[in-house]
Amino acid sequence: MPDTYVCSDCRGTTDRSYGVRYIVVTCEACGRHSRHVHESLVSLLDAVPEDDRPDDWDDRPLDERLLAALEQGYITLGDARVTE
Ligand SMILES: [Zn+2]
């Protein structure tokens, strides 16, 4: 089964046959060259408590949210089914 990656900018998805944290590709949906985050990490972002989210959380690209959540320890890569 392929792994699905979600565009940081538009949430468009693309599939690859391997699982890593993110890939940098040109998005088929919005045409931007952007980070596509592994879908298992995207779902983990919901674990960040709403009270602890910055005001602009919803406006941030997925990759920025991911880095912030990792930095602040809300999620760890051990929670996701990705390599590394
Ligand atoms: Zn896109």
Give structural notes.
There is one protein chain. This protein has one domain. It has 2 helices and 4 strands, in the order ββββαα. The chain has helices at 39-44, 62-71, and strands spanning 3-7, 13-16, 22-26, 33-38. A hairpin with a 5-residue loop joins β1 and β2. The longest helix has 10 residues, at 62-71. It is globular. The mean pLDDT is 92. The protein binds zinc ion. Zinc ion (ZN) is lined by residues 7, 9-10, 12, 27, 29-30, 32.
List the helices and strands and how they pair.
Elements: E1 3-7, E2 13-16, E3 22-26, E4 33-38, H1 39-44, H2 62-71
Antiparallel strand pairs: 1-2, 1-4, 3-4
Contiguous uncertain segments of 5+ residues: none
> Biggest sheet, open or closed, and with what strands and sense?
4 strands, antiparallel
The small-molecule ligands in this entry are:
zinc ion
Widest sheet: strand ordering = 2-1-4-3
Kindly state the number of beta strands.
4
Strand-residue proportion: 15-25%
Oligomeric state: single chain
Q: What structural category arises from helix and sheet content?
A: alpha+beta
Q: Give the overall average pLDDT.
A: 92
CA-to-CA gap between the ends? 19 Å
Spatial extent as radius of gyration: 12 Å
Percentage of helical residues?
10-25%
* String of helices and strands: EEEEHH
Counting structural domains, the number is 1
Which overall shape is indicated by the principal axes computed on the Cα atoms? globular
Number of helices: 2
Q: Can you tag this structure with a few keywords?
A:
single chain; four-stranded antiparallel β-sheet; binds zinc ion; 84 residues; alpha+beta; globular
